[in-house]
Write a structure and sequence with these properties.
The structure holds 2 protein chains of 2 kinds. By secondary structure, chain A is mainly alpha-helical. Chain A is 68% helix and 3% strand. The chains are: A mainly alpha, B alpha+beta.
Chain lengths: 364, 577
């Protein structure tokens, strides 16, 4: 395997710089944080080491994605899509009354919703290839293909991920040529349906969504978390407190410093300078994906790449907005950075698929 | 292409917005957040919510929250744990070692308030407050504690509170519970926990170096729980508890016209204020005998046998059987409780004297499966659906596994019932065939005074019995108290109908004493009260005596002395029989 293509080279370098940055931050997060599940203070670098294993596994996933001709997925989705739906239903049925996002396979917990993201991208792309999204039938089918898994995930309940599904669907449809007017229609329809959905909810579900939208309603729970998140970021200042010297994170004000709130750690220890560099890296990475979309003329590839773009873009912006108090706390990880095996695997596999698309672009 | 350009500009705009936000927080607001971060002075404080009250049918309080003072500490704010523990142990009766252990433990959130001691005395409050400046991180905080007005008397009815367990937290994720919360762990407190608990509130505060409040940053309004109005009568409850005394067993009463439970008592009871002290006591103090104790019903079941025999026309009213004190079926000798035998008896005499030979004989004529069918018609072997947790179903066995007609006819064999099922049975006889669901909560009132729930009587089934059969049965039950085995339950001036039951424990337990039961209703002609007394280790005569004591106190208020005499009188007659 030769990486002669400069664009491919940049993609890999950017990816692994981000992954490395994530590991560095996780190492810092590991120091002195509290392990809720085990009831002990963590002194070793447990998140770091576990994540390192996932990075290695993910890199295998990347190689697979790069080697495996992507167009095979056009047919494979007939198998993968029903399987995903089955697994999502299984999670709902098995985990009754519990936080039902995981399925245990041997020693590993894996989240079908994470893999569902990629499967959805392939399925929708396969469906829309050589179809006109502006035809009403096609348009409605696309929404259904997205809607079924999104509703199942919403039921888990995992509001954030089902939201990501819908956004990814919109981007793929837009890439497929959906007119702006239709795009606008979807948004308006979604807005007008939401009050109806609201009426069907139980009061405790309403309360949960209200505190989800306005954390101030719950000053002891989410409101407290948000305030601590802002203190952590704000106290980082221009140049930060220095690596491993973040005071907020070390006192474990938030339960999720290694996970959804890892951006706080970055902002606290490396300050605004670190944030700017991080944003720069992310901008370059997303830009590289857009270049890959432009480089191929295969419709399926373009749609898949657009879906992957949406995945990374919305994950990153929603996660960061959340820590900055601009978006409800949604349980969405920061790609390449947050602790979590399933998503790391998915993210690196997606990079592999992008590489595969780029390599084969000359053929089309 | 066009799309990629649009997407690229969306990326640029989004990242720019986020960057501006970071600039605002990290540069413009830096002094503010840096200050907050340096002092670590944000705390959350929970405000206790009063649980709803529980009141009896006449609005008399049975359980309510009352204010108290709790001693709490914030692990992070302790400056010199050892010295503070030393000083504190001289002010409140907690050992120094225990305090040090509590202070030096690692906590999940070092800023949470941890309760050291609930409900301080006035002197303790004063002495801790006086020394507050030497005790940074230790505070006296207003709290609430549950008070059960009748204590042990309502232990099994109301239940008790306790900290939510890990397993409960996992199971009830949606209920907004968190570790350390106190919830109902038994009785009505558990069954109606969601309504009683309310929604906790709290404040988010900025504190100074000693940990005292400086500024409130956020507040969440609490919402107190709802009040429960019961069908239970407080006086009846007390009378029943007193009459039961130290006997292991239970007393329960209901209105046979609608299923409203009037009293529910179980012994041994525990103190609901400190249930933990009773966990290892003998006699299963946490067993709610009325609905969780499963016993062979004994002769009380003869009611069902009689109905089955008459309704299936296996016998007629005046068919007679000779009781010689024993009978032999196959190679098994079957005894009547009266060794000399009752002589020739028909059903009108057999029920009052509870003749086993007579009922064994008609049981064989009727057949075990038909008797058990009637038992099922009366919904024995099914939970009654009372609004209390942990109700048992009893057991109506299959005919092959029942132990045979002789045993089943007299309520032995594999048959098992809860005392509550016997109450339901006798009520159904009292009201002529309606099976009402027994219930305890009549009304639920929100803190704002609005009714949240209004319970109505619920018919769970009807047993059709011909008036002739009913007539014979009722006459017999009346005679049980008039001159039969249940004379101790008589009330001067008011006819009472009832049935005694003395059940042997399982064959493996021979040598143990018997269970004694008495189920009755009054007044016999127009019943407004059904009562069951069930004793774990006693004869039915004692159960009837307890029932009589309760009936007289409830039906003839203010005439206890005179009725006491009648009890003695009837007892003498009882022995002569």
């Amino acid at each position: 395997m030769k990486i002669s293509d400069k664009s491919l080279c940049r993609l890999f370098i950017l990816t692994y710089v981000l992954v490395f940055l994530g590991l560095i931050l996780l190492f810092s997060a590991s120091k002195g944080t509290f392990l809720r599940a085990k009831g002990i203070f963590n002194t070793g670098g447990i998140f770091f080491w576990q994540q390192l294993i996932w990075v290695i596994l993910g890199s295998l996933g990347l190689v697979v994605g790069k080697r495996f001709p992507y167009w095979n997925f056009k047919r494979l989705v007939w198998l993968l899509y029903p399987l995903t739906i089955f697994l999502l239903i299984l999670v709902l049925v098995m985990g009754q009354g519990k936080a039902s996002r995981w399925i245990r396979v041997g020693p590993l917990n894996f989240q079908p919703a994470e893999f569902g993201k990629v499967v959805l991208i392939f399925s929708l792309a396969a469906y829309l290839t050589e179809r006109n999204v502006n035809q009403l039938g096609v348009f409605i089918w696309s929404l259904l293909i997205t809607g079924v898994p999104a509703v199942l995930i919403f039921k888990q309940p995992n509001l954030g991920t089902s939201f990501i599904f819908l956004l990814a669907c919109l981007v793929i449809m837009y890439q497929a040529g959906l007119t702006r007017r239709r795009l606008l229609t979807i948004v308006l329809v979604a807005l007008s349906i939401s009050p109806l959905l609201w009426l069907t909810l139980e009061s405790y579900q309403k309360e949960r969504i209200l505190t989800f939208l306005w954390p101030q309603r719950d000053p002891l729970g989410r409101g407290y978390n948000l305030l601590q998140s802002k203190i952590t970021i704000g106290s980082g200042g221009l140049i930060g407190k220095g690596y491993l010297h973040g005071t907020q994170t070390k006192l474990a004000f938030l339960p999720e410093y290694h996970n959804d709130f890892i951006f706080c750690l970055l902002a606290e220890e490396f300050g605004l300078v670190g944030v700017i560099i991080f944003f720069g890296l992310y901008y370059l990475f997303l830009n590289e994906i857009l270049t890959i979309i432009s480089s191929t003329r295969d419709e399926f590839a373009r749609l898949v790449a657009a879906g992957i773009f949406a995945l990374f873009f919305f994950h990153a912006t929603i996660n960061i907005s959340m820590t900055l108090g601009l978006f409800p706390v949604a349980g969405i990880p920061l790609p390449f950075i947050s602790y979590g095996g399933s998503f790391m695997l998915v993210a690196l596999f997606c990079v592999g698929v992008l590489a595969n698309i780029k390599q084969n672009a000359v053929m089309f | 292409m066009e799309q990629e350009k649009v997407l690229a500009s969306i990326v640029r705009i989004s990242l720019l917005v986020l960057l501006v936000r970071c600039f605002y927080l990290q540069v413009i607001r830096f002094p503010y957040y840096a200050n907050l971060s340096r002092k670590q002075c944000i705390r959350t404080i929970e405000i206790g919510i009063p649980r709803g009250r529980i009141l009896d049918r006449n609005g008399r309080v049975l359980a309510e929250d009352e204010p108290c003072f709790d001693l709490v500490f914030v692990p992070y704010d302790l400056k010199h744990p050892a010295q503070e523990a030393e000083l504190l142990s001289s002010l409140v009766p907690i050992e120094k070692e225990k305090l040090i252990a509590a202070f030096t433990r690692k906590y999940r959130n070092p800023f949470d308030r941890i309760i050291l001691k609930k409900s301080l005395s006035q002197v303790e409050v004063a002495s801790v407050s006086e020394n507050a400046y030497q005790l940074p991180g230790i505070f006296v905080q207003a709290g609430l504690k549950r008070r059960y007005v009748l204590g042990k008397v309502t232990a099994h009815l109301l239940g008790h509170l306790g900290e939510v367990s890990e397993e409960q937290l996992e199971r009830w994720k949606d209920k907004g519970l968190k570790a350390g919360d106190v919830i109902g762990q038994d009785g009505l407190e558990k069954y109606y926990d969601d309504l009683l608990r309310g929604i906790p509130g709290g404040i988010l505060v900025e504190v100074d170096a000693l940990g005292h409040h400086r500024r409130i940053l956020g507040e969440k309004k609490m919402q107190p729980g709802c009040d429960l109005y019961l069908t239970v009568d407080r006086t009846f409850q007390e009378v029943a508890f007193e009459a039961l005394g130290e006997n292991e067993g239970c007393v329960l009463a209901m209105d046979p016209r609608n299923g409203q439970i009037l009293a529910l008592v179980s012994q041994p009871a525990y103190d609901p204020h400190q249930p933990e002290k009773f966990f290892s006591r003998p006699g299963k103090p946490f067993l709610n005998r009325p609905l969780q104790g499963q016993y062979p019903p004994g002769s009380v079941f003869k009611i069902v046998t009689e109905i089955a025999a008459l309704e299936t026309m296996s016998i007629e009213e005046h068919d007679r059987v000779e009781c010689t004190g024993e009978m032999t079926v196959g190679n098994i000798v079957f005894h009547c409780w009266k060794e000399d035998g009752h002589g020739w008896v028909d059903i009108d005499q057999a029920l009052p004297f509870s003749c086993n030979i007579f009922f064994g004989t008609i049981g064989m004529k009727t057949g075990v499966s038909r008797i058990l069918d009637y038992a099922r018609l009366f919904q024995l072997g099914e939970a009654t659906g009372i609004d209390l947790p942990g109700e048992k179903k009893g057991l109506v066995p299959e005919p092959q596994q029942s132990g045979g007609p002789l045993n089943i006819a007299i309520g032995q064999g594999a048959l098992l019932t809860t005392p509550l099922q016997l109450l339901s049975l006798i009520s159904t006889v009292a009201n002529g065939g309606n099976i009402w669901r027994p219930y305890l909560v009549k009304r639920v009132i929100s803190p704002a005074g609005k009714p949240v729930k209004e319970a109505t009587s619920q018919l769970t089934g009807t047993v059709y019995v011909t008036p002739e059969t009913m007539e014979i049965l009722r006459k017999g039950l009346k005679n049980v108290v008039a001159y039969g085995t249940g004379t101790a339950a008589s009330v001067p001036g008011i006819p009472v109908a009832g049935k005694t039951g003395t059940a042997q424990r399982g064959a493996s337990e021979i040598g143990l004493s018997t269970h004694g039961a008495f189920a009755c209703y009054a007044p016999a002609d127009n019943p407004s009260l059904a009562l069951v007394v069930f004793l774990d280790k006693a004869a039915s005569r004692q159960a009837a005596r307890i029932a009589g004591e309760i009936l007289r106190k409830i039906l003839l208020p203010g005439q206890e002395e005179s009725s006491q005499e009648t009890t003695l009188g009837t007892e003498k007659r009882d022995e002569n029989l």
